[in-house]
Write a structure and sequence with these properties.
Layout: H1 7-11, H2 27-58, H3 62-86, H4 92-111, H5 116-144, H6 150-179, H7 181-202, H8 215-219, H9 227-245, H10 248-256, H11 260-288, H12 290-313, H13 319-349, H14 354-382, H15 388-411, H16 415-422
Helix pairs in contact: 2-3, 2-5, 2-6, 2-7, 3-5, 3-14, 4-5, 4-7, 5-6, 5-14, 6-7, 6-11, 6-13, 9-13, 9-14, 9-15, 11-12, 11-13, 12-13, 12-15, 13-14
């Protein structure tokens, strides 16, 4: 039987501070987990910058090379909750070590792939490993921290992904341009191996033991009050983000006439803003609660996207300055939303079901990424690249409505019903 759900987490309110004897953050373990998410994030985000080089190398069209992104997203989305549920009996430390070791091996397979289909197979292996590591790393972060520190713990682990956007992706693009795309996969394999060593040293051997449960019982968490609309909020947020992010390079070329090198610098600025956002979001969860953080973050993100369309349609001599300011707002607000959403899902599902609910969240997010890329393509073909911002903003309006419905659904459900659903 799982413990009753935390009413403060369900309401989105900040959790009252524990007495001084309460456990504090396990910084060493959290930063070890973050190093792993940094490696996973670097591989996941750098592939877009390498597509033209890969397409030429394996003799396929750029559209075919783009399917390497699609196959990763779909496999990640489908496999993550299933594998997380099937491996629930494994101790969390062993599971994280095995998944990261598989990620190392898959990167090496990609580095030596002789052709397109073998590279696609490597991307499938990468998605399977990443989809197992990331949600379980976040789940362990939530379990390691006292309730009043949980937002910061999630921010640290997710900070690995935002640092990957800020540093890992530009570095991977630089290595790919000078040493070839295979060297980038080899580099990520080395980085992942380093993360594996750090995990082995810093994660205690008895940490995060998990209780076995049937796949049906684990996935039944989606029936918790407010769970499905909360997950759909993630999807709509992801649709908005990738409608714009996927096509930010042609947008910057059209709106500000930037060269590829300058676009890389702008994306680095976005990554730094994302790191700031996830830090502010994590601290905000602990101070004002998940709901208030999201009420602020989603409208700011929508306003930033709308501003990008306005500048794209009415460019001026100082367009790049305004664009950079809006991209900073986008990065801070988008990633400020993320730890609040994860903390909210922990409150919906309960700590015992955290690994599965966060893996489901990753699935809904990656489905949103794929849908966003399709939506952006349709918008560009029908109206032009400047309109991707408005399309993203409209998706965020839908996310706001869905989020409000989810909070209402969870708060209006009697506690007895919530607790009965949370028991496997």
């Amino acid at each position: 039987m799982t413990p009753p759900l935390d009413p403060a987490l369900l309401s989105g309110a900040p959790v009252e501070k524990a007495p001084p004897a309460a456990p504090s953050l396990h910084h060493g373990a959290l930063y070890a987990l973050a190093l792993g998410t940094f490696a996973v994030g670097t591989e996941g985000f750098m592939i877009a910058a390498l597509l033209p080089t890969i397409a030429h190398s394996v003799s396929v069209s750029i559209q075919a090379a783009g399917q390497l992104v699609t196959v990763f997203a779909i496999v990640y989305a489908v496999s993550s909750p299933i594998l997380t549920a099937l491996t629930a009996a494994l101790p969390r430390r062993r599971l994280l070590m095995l998944s990261l070791a598989a990620f190392v091996a898959a990167n090496l397979v990609a580095a030596v792939a002789p052709g397109y289909w073998s590279l696609a197979a490597a991307r499938v292996l990468l998605a399977l490993a990443a989809g197992l590591y990331v949600p379980n790393a976040n789940a362990l972060a939530g379990a390691l921290a006292a309730p009043h520190h949980r937002g910061r713990a999630l921010a640290i682990v997710n900070g690995g992904i935002t640092v990957a956007i800020a540093i890992g992706v530009p570095l991977g693009a630089f290595i790919g341009a000078h040493l070839g795309w295979r060297a980038t996969f080899a580099g990520v394999a080395l980085l992942s191996a380093m993360a594996l060593v750090v995990l082995a040293i810093l994660l205690p051997r008895d940490i995060g033991a998990a209780a076995p449960a049937a796949l049906r019982d684990r996935l039944a968490v989606i029936a918790a009050p407010g769970a499905l609309p909360t997950l759909l909020t993630t999807t709509l947020w992801a649709v908005a983000a990738y409608t714009v992010y996927t096509y930010i390079s042609p947008y910057l070329t059209a709106a500000a006439h930037l060269t590829p090198g300058m676009i890389g610098l702008v994306l680095m600025v976005y990554g730094v803003a994302a790191l700031i956002g996830v830090t502010i979001g994590g601290a905000g969860v602990d101070r004002i609660g998940s709901r208030k953080v999201q009420v602020i973050a989603l409208p700011v993100m929508a306003a930033a996207f709308t501003g990008l369309t306005v500048i794209g349609l009415l460019p001026g001599p100082m367009a790049i300055v305004a664009i950079i300011a809006l991209i900073i707002l986008w990065g801070v607000s988008a990633w400020g939303f993320f730890p609040a959403q994860q903390n909210r899902l922990i409150g919906v599902a309960g700590l015992a079901n955290t690994p599965v609910i966060l893996s489901l969240n990753a699935s809904f997010m990656y489905l949103g990424f794929a849908a966003g890329a399709v939506l952006g393509s349709l918008v560009i073909s029908m109206a032009g690249v400047a309109w991707i911002g408005v399309a993203g903003a409209l998706s965020l309006l839908a996310a706001m409505a869905m989020s409000r419905f989810a909070w209402t659904r969870a708060s209006s459900t009697p506690a007895a019903v919530i607790n009965s659903i949370s028991r496997p």
